[in-house]
Specification:
With 108 residues, the protein is mainly α. It has 2 helices and no strands.
Length: 108
């Protein structure tokens, strides 16, 4: 989905996914420290690990969503083709039966 005036490409999506993941990891660690009534930046390396895990999580989520969209498009295309085949085969059989019926009426 692209809004007018905003360019959306793989770099933009990847950049924002990385930023959101880092903020998610940082916020989770700071919230954890706040719940335990500890200083927000008690162990800075925990924040770095949380940010890294958040980045990995959100980027994998974006990849999974893109793959899911491709798979859904393939399934919808197959369903459309199957429906078209079914419709045209039924139409062809009905037209043959109609022609046979007309031929039988004409013969008698």
């Amino acid at each position: 989905m692209v809004t007018e005036g905003v360019k959306s490409g793989p770099f933009v999506v990847g950049f924002f996914a990385t930023v959101i993941g880092a903020l998610l990891g940082l916020g989770t660690q700071m919230y954890s420290n706040a719940l335990r009534k500890l200083p927000y930046m008690r162990h800075p390396w925990e924040h770095a690990v949380g940010m890294g895990l958040g980045v990995v999580f959100v980027n994998q989520l974006v990849k999974w969503d893109a793959q899911l969209e491709q798979d859904l498009d393939k399934m919808l295309q197959k369903a459309k083709e199957a429906n078209e085949r079914r419709y045209f085969v039924e139409l062809f059989i009905l037209s043959q039966n109609l022609l046979i019926g007309i031929a039988v009426l004409v013969i008698h």
